[in-house]
Amino acid sequence: MWQGKAIVWILLLPLAICLTYRFLCLGNRSDLVWLVLLTIAAVGLSNTALYMMPATIGCSCLSFFSVEVFSEKRRQNIRKQFYHCLLLAIPLVYPIGILVLLKLNVIPKPTDMRAFGPEFTAWRQPLENVLGWFPEYLRDIAIMVGVPLLIVRGKNGLFLFSYICAVWLLCLNPLLGHLWMHVLAASYFRLFYLLQLPLLCAMSAAAIPRLAGWPRGSLKDQTLTLTTLLAVILGFVYSYRILSIMPRNPKVGIGWKSPGDYQLLPANVSFAQAAGKYIAHSKLLAPCWTASCELPLLFPEMKAVAPRHVAHYFANAGNPEEGNLRIQAQAFVEPQAINDPKRIQWLAAQFRIVVESGRANAVAVPESESARVLTVLQLIDPDWHRVLEAGGLVLMLPRNADPESRE
Fold first, then answer.
1. Cβ atoms of residues 241 and 263 within 8 Å
2. 310, 58, 91, 299: which is closest to 194 by C-alpha?
3. Tell me: the pLDDT tens digits for 178-190?
4. CB under 8 Å to 51, separation ≥6 — which residues?
5. What's the CA dihedral at 229, 234, 237, 241 to 10 degrees?
6. Could you report the per-residue pLDDT of 319-331, keeping only the tens digit for each?
């Protein structure tokens, strides 16, 4: 569902850095053409590329220019490199042009922006969401500083380190965070992916040929490189438990996740395995997290009556009343935090509208709420009944429902 962002962050942004660096070094026009095509492809995969590709190319250009300024041949190449930097504006025409059209409202923006989250957050929150907590900071510092300067080294290493510095100075600076949050709203945290830690981790493998190829006399260099490599490896070993264990919650059975397991709640997987033949082609009304992400991933042909951010989708389609109706019907099948009879009665009326209109022909409800929901369903049609229970959810269907022919 969100693989476009991952492809942009992990694959296309590193390619943009490499192509920008090679174009600035060699001046090959073919690299400029590839950058144009890469930028167009990235925007097609995810709208985050509208601002991340310009930021990546811009920071790469600044880092290369800063390295060249302090090199011995700066007087001979400074004009040529400045010309190459100007040419890098060509790949940016497409994403920046779209941003301008969005700003002028030529391309309509979403009318409901609430689903994207709050406009302003504490600067530290997106930092922790992407880079982790304090122990992971040490690993990240070792990668961002040690890999470019002590493993890659040379002009290439200085370029990578300058790129990291440019990203921190221009994009991740807490003094500028408020400005970027105003421009990007809830998307600000995505700027932290400009740091390209996966690319730096891959480049740490350069330590192996360096250690094997250095003469015995360079003990100091070998020690620094080996120490950095060990620090990165130990950081991987420590952070593996963070990557392999989902947010720990013993109540729902979340702990170790082996590579062959779904990264889904075990209860939802159990329900899907038991109810698959009934819901694979149904229009299912179920609790929010179950219906919004996890069951549709397992059953692509199933229609979720109230997917996540359903109110946002219908509001942008010009029908906010429909989105609100589905949210209210979904709230009726979820556990009630406040036992307010008037509110429950009002939600039941919205629930009946959704079921009677045919928007939903299957209902999944937590066991604790099943009696209350079944009572309302049988007022609509006495043929509604419990079919099965699995993963803490009860599936309810009309008695004449045929799972093979349901669409």
1. no
2. 58
3. 888 888 877 788 8
4. 95, 99, 184, 187, 191
5. -130
6. 889 999 999 999 9
